[in-house]
Amino acid sequence: DTETFDVKDEVPAGKEPTRIVMQPDQKYLWIGNNAKEEADSGVTVIDARSMKIVMQAATGKGHHEIAISPDSRRAFVTNRDSGTVSVFDIGTLKKLKDIPTGSLPLSVAYSKLANTAYVSDGKDGSIAAMLSLGASAEVLKLPEDPALRKLYEERRELERRAEGVGAPAHRRQD
Questions:
Q1: Cα dist. 37→34, 58, 97, 123, 139 in Å?
Q2: What's the pLDDT at 174?
Q3: What's the pTM?
């Protein structure tokens, strides 16, 4: 209840739910499940009106980020430890394919203007562009820019220092 902030019901959301995305048409909620067992690691889809699970799909190992096309026809789910992105047809709730995108796909964003899902790779710093054309998707590796690579490495170093990794023992936050 959003007026009283009371919990009225609980909805099962799969094992280890960590990411939630509402489709633009607000029909389904997509939840990323970061379960340790590969069979449970993937997505759970919940009907937003009935709050019932309509699909659970194993997509691959690791953390999952989710992007939905603006027309709510395609869902793109990253599979960090499998190095792939799973593409779903939302109308049928069927997985179309798993697409290799790089060794560590970390995030995904969808561009309405380009009709393309972009996936960043946390290991090699590349960006994969998946054109959403009908039932197919193609991966195009964008050329690496040395200046962006340097910026990426500097940012990773700052993040490691902020987390206390690699910092002198007397400066670590434990």
A1: 9, 10, 20, 23, 28
A2: 45
A3: 0.76
pLDDT-derived band of residue 54, with 50, 70 and 90 as boundaries?
very high
Distance CA 157, CA 151 (A): 10
Q: Which two tokens stand for residue 39?
A: 């069979």
92: left (phi over 0), alpha (psi -120 to 50) or beta: alpha
- Measured distance CA(153)–CA(173) in Å, rounded: 22
What's the rounded Cα separation, in Å, for the pair 174 and 164? Answer: 8
Task: List phi, psi (to 5°) of 147.
Answer: -65, -40
Give the separation between CA 162 and CA 111, rounded to whole angstroms. Answer: 31
SS3 166: coil
Kindly report, residue by residue over 82-132, the tens digit of the pLDDT. Answer: 999 999 999 999 999 998 888 899 899 999 888 889 888 888 777 888 876
Q: Longest C-alpha distance within the chain, in Å?
A: 56
